[in-house]
Amino acid sequence: xxxxxxxxxxxxxxxxxxxxxxxxxxxxxxxxxxxxxxxxxxxxxxxxxxxxxxxxxxxxxxxxxxxxxxxxxxxxxxxxxxxxxxxxxxxxxxxxxxxxxxxxxxxxxxxxxxxxxxxxxxxxxxxxxxxxxxxxxxxxxxxxxxxxxxxxxxxxxxxxxxxxxxxxxxxxxxxxx
Length: 177
Hints:
Blueprint: H1 4-22, H2 25-30, E1 42-43, H3 45-55, E2 58-64, H4 69-78, H5 82-91, E3 92-98, E4 106-108, E5 111-113, H6 115-121, E6 129-133, E7 139-144, H7 149-160, H8 169-176
Parallel strand pairs: 1-3, 2-3
Antiparallel strand pairs: 2-6, 4-5, 6-7
C-alpha cells in the first residue's frame, strides 16, 4: 500500500528547513564564538604576553572553539559587562586562543606551538576555559566553563588583587562578607 502523505510532508519540511538554513549565513556568523567582545583591547597571544610583562599586569587567556555556545555567551554576556570591562582594563591584558586552530603557530618560552597545542598545554580540556597567567607568563590557575558576570568579576578581583597568593578562593570569599 502506498502512503504518500507523510513522506511528502517530511520531504517538504526537510526542504523548508534546509532552505531556511541556507538563507541565514549572517545569523550563523553572528553566532560564531570567534568574535571577541567589543569594548576590550584583545591582543594576539605573543603581543599580550609581551605587553603583560612590560606593564606588570596579569594575563587572561580566553580559550574557545568557534562552535561553542558557552564561549559565545561568555563573550556576549560576561566580557560586555561594564564592571568586568572596567576591572579587566585596570588589571589585565587579554588574549584568546582558538583551541581548534592546528595551522597557525605562536611562540612562548622558546617553544613554537599551534594555538591548539598551547591551549592543551595550559590545561584547557573543555570550552570555554579562562586561563590566568602572571606578569611573567607563569601559570596561576584556570577557570573551566561559563560563569555569570558577577561570579566572573569575583574571580577577577581574587586574581587581580593577588589574594590568590595568601588565600584559597573559599577563604577569600569568606573575607569579603
